[in-house]
Specification:
- This protein has 157 residues and is α+β, with helices and mostly antiparallel strands.
- Helix content is 38%, strand content 14%.
- The chain has a domain of 94 residues.
């Protein structure tokens, strides 16, 4: 969750013959914190949902691991599957001994410049590497509008 928003102090300004009092709602800090926390939950959930078409899905476990590994509202999306990083960066790694994509127990793997080939299907039409960045490039305005609406701000165009 986000840090708490401090309650602003009321202000009284007196100069010459003029006086101004600025009084904040006593629930301002709490209300704003709740709105921002709700907006962060929205952003996390939307990012996970909108990444589905971009995420490789041979067996659907990879994209489901984001839902299981993420604490919604934390601002951090976590994929729990060990091979997620490999898939995300999209470069083939091969055995340092045989040059095969399959390595025996104890063999190390080395990175190549060969891009991975991703299977696509009707739900994962845009599957490939860097799925978060590609989703964000396509859908950021939509996410920002939703978050701004929840937080009570002005949506960006």
């Amino acid at each position: 969750m986000a840090d708490r928003i401090n309650q602003p102090q009321d202000v009284r300004i007196k100069q010459l013959k003029a006086e101004v009092n600025l009084a904040w709602s006593q629930t301002f800090g709490t209300d704003r914190t709740e709105r921002f926390d709700t907006a962060q939950k929205f952003v996390d959930s939307e990012c996970i949902r909108l990444m589905v078409p971009y995420t490789p899905a041979k067996d659907n476990i990879l994209y489901k691991s984001a839902t299981l590994g993420t604490k919604i509202g934390s601002g951090h999306i976590v994929y729990q599957i060990p091979y997620a990083r490999y898939q995300y960066y999209g470069k083939l790694m091969v055995s340092s001994v045989t040059g095969s994509a399959w390595a025996r127990h104890g063999e190390s793997k080395v990175l190549t410049d060969t891009p991975l080939k991703y299977n696509t299907n009707s739900r994962h039409k845009q599957a490939g590497p860097y799925w978060f960045e590609r989703m964000k490039a396509d859908r950021m305005p939509q996410i920002q509008r939703g978050a701004a609406k929840i937080a009570g701000g002005t949506p960006t165009k």
